[in-house]
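Any chance you'd type out a single protein's sequence alongside its tokenized fold?
>
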Amino acid sequence: MVFSSVVFLFLFLPLVLAGNAFLPKYLRNCFLLFASLFFYFWGEIELIFVIIISILINYIIGIGVDKVRSKAKLILIIGILANFLMLFYYKYFQFFLDNINGIFGYQGNEMLVLQGVRLPMGISFFTFQGVSYVIDVYRKEAKAEINPINIGLYVALFPQLIAGPIVRYNTIMDQIKDRTTSFEKVYEGVLRFAIGFSKKIIIANSLAQVADSIFVTEIDEISSPLAWLGIICYALQIFFDFSGYSDMAIGLGKILGFDFEENFNFPYVSKSIKEFWRRWHISLSTWFRDYLYIPLGGSRKGNLRTYFNLFIVFLVTGIWHGASWSFIFWGLFHGGFLVLEKLGLDNFLKKLYAPFQHLYVLILVLIGWVYFRVEDFSDASSYVFSMFSFRGMESFIWHDYMNNYTTFTLLIGLLFSINLNEKVLIIENKLNLIKSKLYKKTKIKLFLFVVFIAFYFSVSEIANNTYNPFIYFRF
């Protein structure tokens, strides 16, 4: 089940909100856990046992680490291996076999193939949450949870189950055990959900159709302008798709009484790759910092070790996103430029005019997105070549690929990929509008009206259109 579906909006969500509102407090966690497992079961009927096993593993390991401190490290290692072995089997084992086939030249009936295995939705997200829980218990940064319902809810809570943000147990354990809601919080949550829903449907979905139509074109037939159009549309699609889902998750969390941390902060305004990763998928970057980069030594053991640690982190970042060499290259590509920035490129960039700093980031990020989008490494490289080949400049016709609506959504996407509110505040200060109560009221009413219209239009779109892709389902 996805948030941007008729079943979720008009059946599942109203029933869940009603149950959460009217059931007594001591039954709410049981109810939300059941609802969350049903939410997962709806789309993953055969694989519901995967998340149940994940819950049980982390519940048992957490208690074991806490109660048997003399063997805590061994129990922790067993727990981490159990989590990652399950992730490896479902997500990476076939990739491993494919490479074995290639190395030994196996073909036809000789090929090693894993039959009948599908990737469970959100397995990378809930696996990382489970691992962070047992590590935090080991570090004594979180208490082991005795109540299995609470751990089940932490792992499976439906708002952030399939696309994050990745939540650490010690940040929401108090909310799991005792949370309150208020009109202000529900209002804020509804508004945030509506904004995220509109971003997903209006911008991401419409630009996805353009990107898809371009990326299925034969590489040799892609002109330079078309290649740039395709990757720009994809860059906006993935940002508004993923950040839209994060907005919806945060909004739903607030409605139910939870406070999830922010996951995006206008990454395309960055002036360095380092800044980009502070703004993009913040919960994943934070996870790798706390559970991989710092344990490897971080920047505490000299420059060479720091560079090595960065490469390891971004190698794993690429692998986390998908089982292909293109994803691995994408991770190392970003890691390589982070190392270059630490070697002195960052100091050089700071001396440049700000637009050139932004241009540097955007070009690198767009090149990286090609490898993220095209799983075949050779095809991805050919696409990047097309971007810089300057071929077909004279034959490109905009309206062959873009109609008035997609052109409008492209412009809106570009506009809202920057911190528009920050720019508005600067203008308001210059015009001395901040103190005007009439202006404030008019601004709020106009904002609410725009959000309402966008949400209404988005609901109409999903009711009439079956095209509703979601990039992060495969992660």
The chain has two domains: 6-179, 185-400. The CA atoms of residues 181 and 257 lie 5 Å apart.
